[in-house]
Amino acid sequence: MKSFTLPDLGEGLAESEIVEWHIKAGDVVKVDQIVVTLETAKAIVDVPAPYSGTILKRFGHEGDVINVGSVLLEIEEITTEISNHTHGQLEAESVNESSAAQSKDAATVVGKVSHQNHQVDIDSFWVGDASSAQEARSTQGASYAEGAGYTQGNPERSNNQVSALPSARLLAKRLGISIDLVDGSGDSGLILDVDIYNAADKQQPGTEVLKGARRAMVKSMAESHHNVASVTITEEALLNHWNKDEDISIRLIQAVSYASQQEKAMNAWFDATTMTRCVHTTVNIGIAVDSSHGLYVPVLRQADSYNAQDIRTWLDGTVKGIRNRRIGREQLQNATITLSNFGAIAGIYATPVVSPPQVAIVGAGRIIKKVIMEDGKPTEVKAMPLSVTFDHRACTGGEAARFVKALVKHLEREHGNA
């Protein structure tokens, strides 16, 4: 029997949420067969089986959050017989093959899941970053010392040592869970992280532990508010020249692309540590997409090269992928500026949050009707409220204002790009 633990998925992140199991106890699997789909703070990842064999046990349920190194599966490995050898040779070669197989299996996990992802430059600005994983590892190390010893509180278990993963002890401390009251689901009653999460969910009815994109959003928003010097400019685009069947999303994406080319300072990344700014020539627009699982920001790369129909096709396919929780990490990386069309739901003006290292985000509010004076006469028009937040450390007020002016100019055209 072999235990398969959650490998480093090449993201520098310490935890993942189980989205879907593709196997059950008793199933026979082959090497590289997809056994589970996980969601990290950055993407959805399919995890393959490192061995061929029979599934003896699964650890964790769909929706559970687990840490790197936690046991995912127990597999009874399938072995093959070798003929034309003496009994002694078989024993010797069996030992060698077992050792080699373990080495190969380890390489399989790394090669199929981790090594490939390490070839991609991981952006640090998408929700969550590597520092959180390093912090988690360091605090877990400290918890070995804190977690050792005997528990107090429950008379029935006060004289017995609680068997728990160090990460589970730390998690219990953070969530205010008495670990001596938790029943472990691991081998010999070992308390796993998932047991602590389950206990937290039961502790206060109506509460929930944030997972997946919602959990990652907490870190991203906190980082932005702590590090970005945010300033918001508001303006309105009058849409009296628009056709009745205009696609608002397409017009917004085209306008952001146009304004980013006219005022390039807003289509940039900023690094406060090195005091450097990277002004991009390519416009990669992150499109904020709301879903029941949380906020996702897929990226339309080289947005200026797309025509209207291509943009609509991309939007439809991407939104469908998000709703089905089938979106790759590469689809969420390298945005140079972000667009949030919150007005599709509600709201007129807002203060959108910049996601570092980007320096700007465009927010579009609900289209409203208003009366303006035109040639001395009151005229009813449709207006789109715009809210543009920028990092004042990297952009001047003049650069931001010129960007907004270009944005409005494009939106007020009768037609967008063909």
From TrEMBL:
Q: Which cofactors, by name?
A: (R)-lipoate
Q: Per the database record, which ranges form the Lipoyl-binding domain?
A: 1-76
Locate the compositionally biased regions of type Polar residues.
Answer: 151-162
Cross-referenced Pfam families: 2-oxoacid_dh, Biotin_lipoyl, E3_binding
Location of region: Disordered: 137-162
Return the EC number.
2.3.1.-
Instruction: Return the CDD domains for the record.
Output: lipoyl_domain (cd06849)
SUPFAM superfamilies, alphabetized: CoA-dependent acyltransferases, Peripheral subunit-binding domain of 2-oxo acid dehydrogenase complex, Single hybrid motif
The GO terms describing molecular function are: acyltransferase activity
Q: Which family does it belong to?
A: Belongs to the 2-oxoacid dehydrogenase family.
Output the PANTHER family linked to this UniProt entry.
DIHYDROLIPOAMIDE ACETYLTRANSFERASE COMPONENT OF PYRUVATE DEHYDROGENASE COMPLEX
Instruction: Please give the name of this protein.
Output: Dihydrolipoamide acetyltransferase component of pyruvate dehydrogenase complex
Q: Which organism is it from?
A: Vibrio gallaecicus
